[in-house]
Amino acid sequence: MTSDKPALTIRLVGPRGFCAGVVRAIQIVEAALERYGPPVYVRHEIVHNRFVVQALEEKGAIFVEELEEVPDDVPVVFSAHGVPKSVPAEARRRELHYIDATCPLVSKIHREAERHFAAGRHVLLIGHAGHPEVVGTMGQLPSGAVELVQTVEEAQQVEPPADRELAYVTQTTLSVDDTAEVIEALRTRFPELHEPRREDICYATTNRQAAIKAAVPGADAVIVIGSRNSSNSNRLVEVARAAGCPLALLVDGVEHIDWAALTVVRVLTVTAGASAPEVLVEEVVEACRERFDVTVEEWTDTLETVKFKLPRELAA
Fold first, then answer.
1. Which three-class secondary structure state does DSSP give residue 279?
2. Model confidence over 221-235: pLDDT tens digits?
3. What was the pLDDT predicted at 2?
4. 171-to-18, 33, 47, 202 alpha-carbon distances in Å
5. Active-site positions?
6. Cβ proximity of 221 and 268 under 8 Å
7. Which residue among 174, 198, 273, 295 is least packed, with the fewest CB closer than 10 Å?
8. Which H/E stretch holds residue 313?
9. What count of other Cβ atoms lies within 10 Å of the Cβ of residue 121?
10. How many C-beta atoms lie closer than 10 Å to residue 300's C-beta?
11. Domains located in the chain, CATH noted
12. If residue 294 lies in a helix (H) or strand (E), which one and from where to where?
């Protein structure tokens, strides 16, 4: 039987969705709720996804922006993005029971920055101003010890102390290509620049950007499922556009899709940021089936096997 719906091929990109750090952070909140009972407070969104946050709120999590909003005698979880050292210090002063859900790959960057500082180096942090991960990383060291560089232009203009060696670290969720350009600009000016022992941009960010690049050629449009405040999701949209697909849309979920924009689309690439659950991808595919005669193609670039352990107090 011939369908009267227009044909649509969906390239379902892999890897997509939750990374190991996001899985661990969500599990920490869920395990804390199970062990200590609600409410469990969480400083900042545990991950940048509205669906995830709402689901945890329904289980008894309460999200706040600052520690001063947390009452005494309740557990508090620090988000996956990491926090300045002043936050756990204040929690200890108040004798709060806190659980740190910082992604281990973010913690790695914190330790790198501390190592460079201990060696007497001035640290340049490549990242986006105001992002919680950047705030947390800068907050690992005394004021002035870390200098933020966001763009190639800033890399060409930054004036670090002339009497100090230089090192750089990066936010984990940046565009791989854009960051490479900033690093090259810094290397050109500062040939003795100390580099990370291993790549700072996390495996999940790198893999998802490589996968979307592979799935863009020949596609009429790209949908990236992720929240507006998700850095890695925004970077996927940018990567898709840079790879040659100007119609690249970031949507929280199926309710935010501009179906009119997809009227003439015949090949649609679909992926999800590292903090977006797979159920949202499934909903988008099903919504497409209601409007199109859909053929799904799996475009898996890399298989991910990374897992992170829970904190000891929640692991039993």
1. helix
2. 999 999 999 999 999
3. 61
4. 18, 30, 15, 9
5. 133
6. yes
7. 198
8. helix 312-315
9. 20
10. 13
11. 7-18+203-300 (3.40.1010.20), 20-103 (3.40.50.11270), 105-201 (3.40.1010.20)
12. strand 293-300
Q: Which two tokens stand for residue 71?
A: 């009452």
Which token pair is 70? 């947390």
* Cα pseudo-dihedral 236, 242, 248, 253, rounded to 10: 10
Tell me the one-letter amino acid at 137: T
CA 184 to CA 311: how far, in whole Å? 38
Whether the Cβ atoms of residue 147 and residue 125 lie closer than 8 Å to each other:
yes
CA-CA-CA-CA dihedral for 26, 29, 35, 38, to nearest 10 = -130
- Residue 47: pLDDT over 90: yes
The predicted structure's pLDDT at residue 316: 65
Please state the pTM of the whole predicted model.
Answer: 0.94
Q: Where are the alpha helices (DSSP H) in 201-296?
A: 203-215, 231-242, 278-291
What is the pLDDT at residue 315? 82
Pairing of strands 221-225, 248-251: parallel
22: nearest Cα among 47, 43, 41, 40? 47
